[in-house]
Amino acid sequence: MTLTQFVAKNTFRNRRRSILTIISIGVSLLLLTLMMTIWRAFYIDSGPPESALRLITRHRVSLTFALPMAYREKIRAIPGVVNVAPENWFGGRWKDDKPENFFPQFGTDPEEITKVYTEWKIPPDQFQAWIHDRTGALVGRTLVNKHGWKLGDRVILQGTIFPTNLELTIRAIYDTDDPNAASVMYFNQKYVYESVKYMKDQVGVFAIRVDSPEAVSRVARAVDDTFRNSPQPTKTETEKAFGLSFIAMLGNVKAFILGISLAVVFAILLVSANTMAMSIRERVREVAVLKTLGFTRGGILALFVGEAMSLALVGGILGALLATFLVRAIAESGQFFGPGLRVTFPTMLVALVVAAFVGFASAFLPSYRASSLNIAEGLRHLG
Amino acid sequence: MAIPISYNVRNLRLRLGATVMTALGIALTVAIAIFIMALLSGLQQAFMTTGNPLNVMAMRKGSDSELSSIISREQFGVIKALPGLAKNSQGDPLASGEMMVAIVLPRSDGTGETNVSVRGMSPVGFELRPEIKLLEGRWFAAGQREVVVSRSISKRFANAGMGNTLQFGKGSWTVVGIFDGAGTAHDSEIWADVNQMVTDFDRPVFSSVVMQASDAVAADALSNRLSDDQRLKLDGMSENSYFAKQTKSGAAIKFVGTLVAIIMAIGSCFAAMNTMYAAVAYRGREIATLRVLGFSRPSILTSFVLEALLISLVGGLVAVILMLPFNGLTTGTSNQVTFSEVIFQMRMTPAVIAIAMMFAAIMGVLGGVAPAWHAARQNILAALRG
């Protein structure tokens, strides 16, 4: 019987208690991993490498104001700019108002948009079919899977912002590495311009691709300077920053995530401490025997801490694994429109470290008291 | 005969450490549930109580938001002449052509900028909303670059206090008054003169027309007439129902909040179960003695479930007390309809507290049932022998 075996046997001496503790800690760590994953996706993840070369230009005052199409060529003339594509949010209703039937739809220039979003994978024949069909649509793979569409299907969008309905035919499907990023529908904006006269040559935002990461801030400044004093001034920021501005609108998301994470860690601490205290209390006589055999105080402390940490780590692994499945399910469901939502190895590692720390901290006080017990009194203890 | 509750209370006091820790764990879960419910309750309050029942709104047919609606001046002229409109003391019809715009303002706590709604109206607009009272300063004067803001906005955004200047459109606007939004959706709005806004934003059209009917019957008739008129191509609705629809902004909070609360509840249930199992194991001989004395199995079951319930109710109470300071806290989130920030107060209503305590009770009962069952069914002789 080695020391590790001894610790392992003791960890599961009361199987029901250990399993309940593991489940409790596992569930809490699932939540913590979820929180950390969301934090990472929002604030740390920088998106696919192609995203680093993209900027979004919108009207300085509000996203609800349009920019003139004439800006496009002026932006293209700025050194460092490789491609400029307009994006017009259509906001149409498909089938009904239920949240699961909602998806982003943009009117754009089919030929140039694929040069801006270079990470899209579209089969060449489908791409040709799309650019030659004025009423054709390009749809992301995740969206297609979610609604069971296939090439050639008709999709009708009722205009809620613009007084027209669009009857689109799916001509092309794009794939991306991150399934979260493949949940948008694009179509030719000329279709909207023909139906809604007052929207002609009005653009919601411009998506810009630059030639190098160094050009990003220079181009952003240059674009805004060009239009600073015109009737429609612009605000240009990286694609990442643009996405973050929507999240910031939700409220103090950072505080919320931090608050929940703290509450969860504290709750795990309580659960683990409770279990260890119960476990140690019923073994007072055993501790006395161990001391008689020659185990030092430090040794006994290490045994108990080891037990607590093992329990917590098993719970942690369970929680992190469950979180991975949950997050993957959310990503594939297409409910969450944003790239980067996945549980990475560093995130899982952090969860395990937290688990180990909780195990350590929760066992410390009861173990210390147990290890400093007077041998004779311990042997006398009736437990 | 039932086992007296004092037995349970005394036992809880005996193993105080475990009791406290379990209760605290449940308290944390309930606290999170209260937080989410208070947020949703506040959002609900902001939208459900907005609008005068006699007020009717007209928007372009098919628009679900003032932001996306356009009404021309000609249409406004026709609307003003419709029968059933109340008149003010000067004999003018109470109809206000309004323009909704979303501008970007930085928050005063430095957490970034967000969209804020600006509602352009004519002075008639004040008469349409008598429940909104001025707290400081005065209403803006027609034709001037002046605005009035809600008290919540003056505190939440930088440079939005009395006398400050806001920058939007083609220049600066002075804040000349602060009004009390009375917990309605108007708490999230800045009001300005509609004609000034028209020139600033180059939009010679209105977003909506808000009008007051002479009585409730006329209000219904007006709504229907507006929707049915083929020339006008408008939708008429009561102001109440327009704002009530905006409660869907809370959908994201509800989803995430419910998910978090359920996950934590599962964790707490297992923790409570753990504690109760330990209690049952520790008191094996006691339980056997109770059985010998004549207490039936159901009474043992009930007793232990009650003990778990006691712990969880204490936890629930602690949570309620912990969360009380949050009651009335002003916060904001994004309104999916106006695409701007909606400011509201967190509200811990009696309903919220009741649901929270029920939540705690359910966790306690669920956590206590299995160990209690185990206690009730244990073999008396084996337990007595230890």
TL;DR of this structure?
Chain A is α+β, with helices and mostly antiparallel strands. Helices cover 54% and strands 15% of the residues of chain A.
Q: How would you state the average pLDDT of chain A, rounded?
A: 86
Helix fraction bin of chain B: 40-55%
Number of helices of chain B: 13
Instruction: Give the ordered list of helices and strands of chain A.
Output: HHEEHEEHHEHEEEHEEHEHHHHHH
Percentage beta strand of chain A: 15-25%
What does it look like?
The complex is a heterodimer of chains A (383) and B (386). Chain A is α+β, with helices and mostly antiparallel strands. Chain A folds into two domains: 3-45 and 252-380, no CATH class; 61-232, no CATH class. In chain A, 54% of the residues lie in helices and 15% in strands. Chain A has 14 helices and eleven strands. Chain A is elongated and about 95 Å long. Chain B has 386 residues and is an alpha+beta fold. In chain B, the strands form two sheets. In chain B, strands 1, 2, 3, 4, 5, 6, 7, 8, 9 and 10 form a ten-stranded mixed beta sheet that branches. In chain B, helix 2 (16-48) packs antiparallel against helix 9 and helix 2 (16-48) packs antiparallel against helix 12 (350-376). The longest helix of chain B has 33 residues, at 16-48. The radius of gyration of chain B is 29 Å and the shape is elongated. Chain B starts with a helix and ends with a helix. The mean pLDDT of chain B is 87. Chains A and B meet through helix 2, helix 9 and helix 10 of A and helix 2, strand 2, strand 3, helix 9 and strand 11 of B.
Give me some keywords for this one.
heterodimer, A: 383 residues, alpha+beta, 2 domains, two-stranded antiparallel sheet, 54% helix, elongated, B: alpha+beta, 12 strands
Chart the SSEs and their pairings.
The complex is a heterodimer of chains A (383) and B (386).
Chain A lengths: L2 H9 L3 H30 L9 E6 L7 E2 L2 H6 L4 E9 L15 E4 L1 H7 L7 H8 L4 E5 H7 L6 E5 L6 E10 L10 E4 H7 L6 E2 L1 E6 L4 H12 L7 E5 H11 L3 H29 L2 H10 L3 H37 L11 H27 L3 H6 L3
Parallel strand pairs in A: 4-8, 5-7
Antiparallel strand pairs in A: 1-10, 1-11, 2-9, 3-4, 3-10, 5-8, 6-7
Helix pairs in contact in A: 1-12, 2-10, 2-12, 2-13, 10-13, 12-13
Chain B lengths: L4 H10 L1 H33 L6 E6 L12 H8 L14 E12 L6 E9 L2 H5 L4 E5 L8 E5 H6 L8 E4 L2 E10 L8 E5 H8 L6 E5 L3 H13 L5 E5 H6 L6 H32 L1 H10 L3 H27 L6 E5 L6 E5 L4 H27 L3 H6 L1
Parallel strand pairs in B: 3-8, 5-7
Antiparallel strand pairs in B: 1-9, 1-10, 2-3, 2-9, 4-7, 5-8, 6-7, 11-12
Helix pairs in contact in B: 1-11, 2-9, 2-11, 2-12, 9-11, 9-12, 11-12
